[in-house]
Amino acid sequence: MTFYKFAVGVVLALAMIAVLTMSALVFSARDFQFGVQQLSPQTGGMISFAKLEESNRLIDEIEDSTSAPRGEERDVRNQIADLDAQIESATQAADEMRADMVGVIAAIERDANLQPSESAAADTTAQALSQRINALAGRSGLAPADQQRVAQLRGQVQQLAAREEALDDLDAQRAALVSRQRLVSGQVAEANRRVLALQSSVVPDSDLYERVRGEAHALQAMSPLGLSASLAQGHPALLSTLLVLLMGALGALLYLFPAYLNRAIPVTIAEIIVRLIFGMCAALAFYVLANAAIAGFSIASSVQQATTSSALNPFTVSLVGIVAGVMSEDIAKWIQERGKGIFTQGGGDASPPASAANVVGTTPTPSGGLVNNQAIS
Predict the structure, then answer these.
(1) DSSP state of 373
(2) Per-domain residue ranges for the chain?
(3) 283 Cβ neighbours under 8 A, 6+ residues apart
(4) How high is the pLDDT of residue 375?
(5) The pLDDT of residue 345
(6) Minimal CA–CA distance to 336: which of 372, 279, 289, 270?
(7) Which of 29, 222, 322, 375 could disulfide-link to 232, CB 3.0 to 4.6 Å?
(8) Residue 326 belongs to what H/E stretch?
(9) pLDDT in tens, 203-216
């Protein structure tokens, strides 16, 4: 291996490293924009990292300032739940006692041939039951067993009255807690509205804020010197164009490396430079033609297809650039033939003049395409 070939290999390696590094940075930024656009189309794939950081700071301040009301709200909610359980249990026990007492009172009244009024029979409070028991106690001629049951009912009605008072106290405690909960919930709700407003200033759909923030923080954490995060602030059209150019250069390098290793005619530094530039030009031309074709089909059809840069998949854009870079000569020749066909329709002979054929020559170039590698070697 000659020193010159070694130097060409070093240049190729350095070019590949540079292209790969820049491609990785641009691709990660463009892929982030594409992901944001898929989550929230209203953003167009672009969010402001500065506004995101400012919103995070303000949201943290709001969360810190309302931590006490939020904690109190949780405590009050738990206390209300405990009181509800106590009230339900006490009510069930009182209802069971009341039902037993009503049955015993009704049996004694039947034995004493005493018919209470409908309103008195319907009222089952401790006070109403106490009045019916007192009426039975004051009635003469009760059997000894009924008198004993009336005495027991007097003790039970006192227990029922105590349970009803306890229930009233529990209801009063619950009402006070509910009032406190409304007050604290109002403070928390106001803080939540401020948080939602801050989130909506970054992402219109606030439900996606946490996910977008996580994606942005991941990009910033993995971005060397913050370059990918800075690139993600650019317009998707610019990033897509840069991605196509870099992938075109990558495709050109994918062509040059096998040529450097296997081709009989050595690769030169001039050929590397020309190939890189030519690959980028071919990739950009093919990218423009592909988007123009998609736009043309969209206009001709009844269904309008999204052709904005933010909706373009970065993997598809990269594929277009790599293929165009590898096949740059064939793509340039194809574009030339298509253009010639368009502009010579209905005209005369489209074959090149003899003088032009003599200038180019009839011997094919070693690369088999449009670039004369011998001329730049």
Answers:
(1) T
(2) 3-45+224-343, 64-202
(3) 244, 245, 247, 248, 249, 251, 320, 321, 322, 324, 325, 328
(4) 42
(5) 57
(6) 289
(7) 29
(8) helix 314-326
(9) 888 888 888 888 88
